[in-house]
Amino acid sequence: MFCVYILQSEKDNSYYVGHSDNLDRRIEEHNREKNKYTRNKTPWKLAYGEFFNSRSEAMRREMEIKKKKRKNYIEWLINLAG
Fold it and tell me: Phi and psi for 17 in degrees, rounded to 5?
């Protein structure tokens, strides 16, 4: 299984969208400052996730979310799942 996830920074409330085949490990990596973009915004918490059977499906969905480039869309997704 592959997951598209949205993390929210507890430092500045910004969002990060990504995908992974191991969600727990990936969140831990973000919080251990292994990612260049996210290292200055730790700690991160999971705000949203969607699961897919293939990496290609997850990557397509990640790009779809990123192309929206709107914080409102991300917050809508999070509230919808909430």
Answer: -110, 130
Model confidence over 22-81: pLDDT tens digits? 999 999 999 998 888 899 999 999 999 999 999 999 999 999 999 987 888 999 999 988
Tell me phi and psi for residue 77, to 5 degrees: -60, -45
Task: Please name the residues in contact with 33: beta carbons below 8 A apart, sequence gap of 6 or more.
Answer: 39, 42
Structure tokens at 80: 């919808």
Q: What are the structure tokens assigned to 71, written together?
A: 């914080």
Q: Collapsing DSSP states into helix, strand and coil, what is residue 68?
A: helix
Q: Which helix (H) or strand (E) covers residue 56, if one does?
A: helix 55-68
